[in-house]
Amino acid sequence: KIRRDRHHLHEIQLEKHMRGGRQGSSRCLICLLPLVLLLFTILSPSTLVATLDRRSPRPRVDHGLQRSDDKYPRPQLQRSRWLSLNGWWEWEEASKSRLRSASAEAPLRHRVRVPFPIEAPLSGLAMGNGAAGLKRMRYRRKFDVPNSWGWPYMCRLQLNFGAVDWSTETYFNGHRVGSHRGGYTPWAIELPPIFAS
After folding, report:
1. What count of other Cβ atoms lies within 10 Å of the Cβ of residue 178?
2. Per-residue pLDDT averaged across 56-62, rounded?
3. Which of 78, 113, 165, 179 has the most neighbouring CB atoms within 10 Å?
4. Which residue from 178, 182, 158 is spatially nearest to 169, judged by alpha carbons?
């Protein structure tokens, strides 16, 4: 019976200790509450939104496209001389006859941001499902090869495509230099020095 009383006494002391702990933690929370409210009143709504936006797990849509195109896309295979062609290209829907007869100098009707597909808002066209009926499209980008590369005499020039869907004919300075068939597969074309201008 004495053991039982001691055990009971120990339980009573433990219960008192736990009640005291609960009261202490609630006092601590009551003390922290004004501090938290003060922080929320100091932070302006725009600062709070910017902070929450940075921590958001969803990707933000930024139509200003703040990403840098001057970084090499595959650092493990980096070359000393390369030029990214991502960015704004000329674009239009075209018939088969217009693809072959169009002048290289005539401007195309629209602009599109590559590497985004024309259905995506970041492409600048945001055609969505309206692009489903398009059969032939024409893209064009003008660029200069840096003189320091020594092309066409000192180096070879290769044009790399990450992916094109589905059939492609590629022209360089008005000359057909290659074609490719197959969706979403990378491919490359070496540009012949005889077409340099």
Report:
1. 16
2. 46
3. 113
4. 178
79-137 tens-digit pLDDT:
778 888 989 999 998 876 566 555 667 888 899 999 888 888 999 988 888 777 788 88
Residue 122 CB-density burial (10 A; 0-12 exposed, 13-18 middle, 19+ buried): middle
Q: Which two tokens stand for residue 111?
A: 């602009």
Largest Cα span, the chain: 108
- Do residues 102 and 138 make contact, with C-beta atoms less than 8 angstroms apart? yes
∠ CA(95), CA(98), CA(123), 5° rounding?
A: 65
In whole angstroms, what separates CA 124 from the centre of its chain?
14
- Residue indicated by tokens 């074309």: 189
- The alpha carbon of 17 is separated from its chain's Cα centroid by a whole number of angstroms, namely 56
Name residue, tokens 């005889």: 194
Burial code (b: 16+ CB inside 10 Å, e: under 16) for 153-163 equals eeeebeeeeee
Is residue 145 very low, low, confident or very high in pLDDT (cuts 50, 70, 90)?
Answer: confident
Distance (Å) of CA 89 to CA 117, 124, 128, 155, 170: 12, 10, 19, 26, 14
